[in-house]
């Protein structure tokens, strides 16, 4: 088995830990914020996990082992949620949320920008760049509209 498979599992576990932090902290804010955060993470995770499964297969794992290892990385999410709940301040959830949500959202923004911006800068076709920028703006608009309802 190639080391890339194990590195992918480690990165996926850390990613799932931050997702667990974000979901639990969001539910501490309100049910609405919690459900919106959960839906956003689920929409992100479906293609992400399929890609990780393919990486594990390419690294030499058989299908059953890759599936078991992918499921084991989900424990990182549970640990993240437990950590967020246990980190609540005696003064209330507000102090917990005050550092968890900026930490997780900043991490998500950093990863997204590190992945997206270099691709945009390397794009030779201006029409493709415009389409990608419009889709990014559409995503931002959807988030703003959902936050207003």
UniProtKB/TrEMBL annotation:
Pfam families (UniProt xref): Zip
Superkingdom per UniProt: Eukaryota
Organism: Rhinopomastus cyanomelas (Common scimitarbill)
GO cellular component, one term: membrane
Single GO term (MF): zinc ion transmembrane transporter activity
Recorded name of the encoding gene: Slc39a13
Subcellular location: Membrane
Protein name: Zinc transporter ZIP13
Catalytic function, reaction form: Zn(2+)(in) = Zn(2+)(out)
TM stretches of this protein: 69-87, 99-117, 129-148
Membrane-topology descriptor: Multi-pass membrane protein
GO biological process, one term: intracellular zinc ion homeostasis
Primary location class: membrane
Similarity comment: Belongs to the ZIP transporter (TC 2.A.5) family.
UniProtKB keywords: Ion transport, Membrane, Transmembrane, Transmembrane helix, Transport, Zinc, Zinc transport
